[in-house]
C-alpha cells in the first residue's frame, strides 16, 4: 500500500474504509538467517536496511511487547547533527542526511521538521566552546551559525534576557536540526521492513540465547525456540539483561530519563531551544504541546517512570530560561530506560561470540541516531565489517582505554552522560 495525497483525500471522502494493515502479524518460523532482538527504532531500521540495502529477506524482529512501545515512543523527538569529536560527528552527520530523505525512502510521513536548534550559552567560556563546536560541525559538512544575544532574541524573544544569574550571551544555531514524530518513525520502518519480507514478531520475549562451540545458534522465546546463525541485540535499556543471557557483562548502566508535555498552546516556540546552564531542552509539537526534558534521574533503574526530584529539577530549569511557561498545565510525563556507557557514546560491534552482534549505549542520543544506527548495524551484520562512519563504536574501547569518545568531556562515568 502506497500513500499519496490523492489516496488520503479518497479515503477521507469514503469513510477511511480502504486502508489495510501497515504490517503483517505472522507466526514465528522455526529458523531464520538473522534475528533482531528488539522492535524499537534501531531494531526496525536495522531490519529495514538489511532487506533494502543488502537484499536479505529471511529476517525476524522479536519484540517482547508491541511495535513502538519502548524508547522509540518515549523521547523528545529531537533530530540533530551538532557533535564535536571525530568518531561521533561523521556518524550523526550521516544520520541527518538519512533523515532528510527518509520520508521519500519509506513513502511514509514521519513528520520530520527541520525547524532548527539553538544551543544557548551563558558565559565567555561557553561561547568559545560553542564556536569550536560550530567550526567542527562546518568542517564535517554540516551547518552551524554563532548567534550573539540579539541574534537569539530575533528567533526567541520570549526567553528571559534579563536574568542576571544566567545571562544569555548567544547561541549556536543548527538550522538543519529539528524534530520528527517518534511513533511515525517506528511505524514507517516497520511497514518498510514488512513489505520486504521481514517478519515482525510481537509479544515474543527472548528468554535465552543458545550458544554452542562459541557460536550463536538461536534464541529461546515465550513463543518457542527459534534458530539463527546471526543474532543482533538491539534492546536499549535492557541491553545488559539480554547480553547476560549470552554470558556477557556490558559496560552499560540503565537509567531513567523523564520527558514532559503540556496542554496545547498557540504556536510560540518555533525552534528547539536548549539551556546552557542546566540540562533542559524544549520544543513545541504540531498539536501545540510544549515537549521538554532534562537530566536522567541519577540512579540505575529498569522502571519506565521517574521520581519527583527530577521533575522539580526540570521545571526549575525551564522557569529560569522562560518564565512564560509557568502557567502551562503539564498533561503527562513518561520515562525511557537509557543505556548509558561510561563515555556517553554508543556501541555497534561484534561480540566475542561468533554470530552475535551488539547495538547499544545510546545514552541521550538514541532517537536522532535511528536511521544511521540501523544502516551501520545492518552493514556490520551483513558484511562482517564496520560501516565507515561507525568504526569508533567498538566494544573493546572500555577494556583497552583506546578510542574513548567522551563527547562532553565529563569523564568516564555513566551518570555524567
What does this structure look like?
With 417 residues, the chain is α/β, with parallel strands linked by helices. It folds into two domains: 5-77 and 182-251 and 343-416, FAD/NAD(P)-binding domain (3-Layer(bba) Sandwich); 112-177 and 253-340, D-Amino Acid Oxidase, subunit A, domain 2 (D-Amino Acid Oxidase, Chain A, domain 2, 2-Layer Sandwich). The chain is 28% helix and 25% strand. It is built from eleven helices and 19 strands. It has helices spanning 5-13, 41-54, 89-100, 102-106, 124-140, 149-155, 182-195, 239-244, 308-321, 370-383, 397-400, and strands at 34-37, 59-62, 78-79, 117-121, 145-148, 170-174, 178-179, 199-201, 206-212, 215-221, 224-227, 230-233, 253-264, 272-275, 280-284, 289-300, 330-340, 347-350, 356-360. An eight-stranded mixed beta sheet has the order 5-6-4-14-15-16-13-17. The chain has a six-stranded mixed beta sheet with strand order 8-2-1-12-19-18. α3 (89-100) crosses α10 (370-383).
Keywords:
417 residues; alpha/beta; FAD/NAD(P)-binding domain; D-Amino Acid Oxidase, Chain A, domain 2; 2 domains; 8-stranded mixed β-sheet
CATH classification class of the largest domain: Alpha Beta
Structural class: alpha/beta
According to CATH, what is the topology of the largest domain?
FAD/NAD(P)-binding domain
Total separate domains: 2
Query: If helices are DSSP runs of H or I spanning 4 or more residues, what is the number of helices?
Result: 11
SSE order in H/E notation?
Answer: HEHEEHHEHEHEEHEEEEEHEEEEHEEEHH
Question: Architecture of the largest domain in CATH?
Answer: 3-Layer(bba) Sandwich
User: What oligomeric state do the depicted chains represent?
Assistant: single chain
Amino acid at each position: 500500500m502506497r500513500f499519496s495525497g490523492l489516496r488520503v483525500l479518497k479515503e477521507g471522502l469514503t469513510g477511511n474504509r480502504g486502508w489495510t494493515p501497515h504490517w503483517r502479524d505472522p507466526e514465528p518460523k522455526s529458523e531464520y538467517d538473522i534475528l533482531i532482538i528488539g522492535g524499537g527504532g534501531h531494531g526496525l531500521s536495522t531490519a529495514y536496511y538489511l532487506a533494502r540495502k543488502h537484499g536479505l529477506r529471511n529476517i525476524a524482529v522479536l519484540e517482547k511487547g508491541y511495535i513502538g512501545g519502548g524508547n522509540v515512543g518515549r523521547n523528545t523527538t529531537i533530530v540533530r547533527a551538532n557533535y564535536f569529536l571525530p568518531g561521533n560527528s561523521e556518524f550523526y552527520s550521516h544520520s541527518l542526511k538519512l533523515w532528510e530523505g527518509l520520508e521519500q525512502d519509506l513513502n511514509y510521513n514521519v513528520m520530520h521538521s527541520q525547524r532548527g536548534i539553538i544551543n544557548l550559552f551563558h558565559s565567555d567560556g561557553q561561547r568559545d566552546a560553542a564556536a569550536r563546536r560550530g567550526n567542527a560541525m562546518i568542517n564535517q559538512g554540516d551547518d552551524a551559525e554563532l548567534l550573539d544575544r540579539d541574534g537569539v532574541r530575533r528567533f526567541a524573544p520570549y526567553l528571559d534576557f534579563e536574568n542576571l544569574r544566567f545571562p544569555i550571551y548567544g547561541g549556536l544555531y543548527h538550522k538543519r536540526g529539528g524534530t520528527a514524530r517518534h511513533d511515525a518513525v517506528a511505524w514507517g520502518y516497520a511497514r518498510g521492513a514488512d513489505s520486504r519480507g521481514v517478519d515482525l514478531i510481537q509479544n515474543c520475549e527472548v528468554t535465552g540465547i543458545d550458544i554452542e562451540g562459541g557460536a550463536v545458534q538461536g534464541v529461546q522465546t515465550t513463543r518457542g525456540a527459534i534458530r539463527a546463525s546471526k543474532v543482533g541485540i538491539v534492546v536499549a535499556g535492557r541491553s545488559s539483561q539480554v547480553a547476560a543471557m549470552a554470558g556477557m557483562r556490558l559496560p552499560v548502566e540503565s537509567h531513567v530519563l523523564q520527558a514532559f508535555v503540556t496542554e496545547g498552546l498557540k504556536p510560540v516556540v518555533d525552534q528547539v531551544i536548549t539551556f546552557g546552564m542546566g540540562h533542559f531542552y524544549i520544543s513545541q509539537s504540531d498539536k501545540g504541546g510544549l515537549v521538554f526534558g532534562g537530566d536522567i534521574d541519577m540512579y540505575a533503574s529498569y522502571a519506565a517512570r521517574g521520581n519527583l526530584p527530577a521533575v522539580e529539577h526540570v521545571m526549575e530549569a525551564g522557569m529560569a530560561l522562560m518564565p512564560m511557561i509557568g502557567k502551562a498545565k503539564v498533561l503527562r510525563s513518561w520515562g525511557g530506560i537509557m543505556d548509558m556507557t561510561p563515555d556517553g557514546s554508543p556501541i555497534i560491534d561484534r561480540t566475542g561470540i561468533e554470530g552475535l552482534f551488539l547495538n547499544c549505549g545510546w545514552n541521550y542520543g538514541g532517537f536522532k541516531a535511528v536511521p544511521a544506527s540501523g544502516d551501520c548495524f545492518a552493514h556490520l551484520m551483513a558484511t562482517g565489517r564496520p560501516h565507515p562512519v561507525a568504526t569508533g563504536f567498538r566494544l573493546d574501547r572500555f577494556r583497552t582505554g583506546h578510542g574513548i569518545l567522551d563527547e562532553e568531556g565529563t569523564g568516564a562515568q555513566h551518570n555524567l552522560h
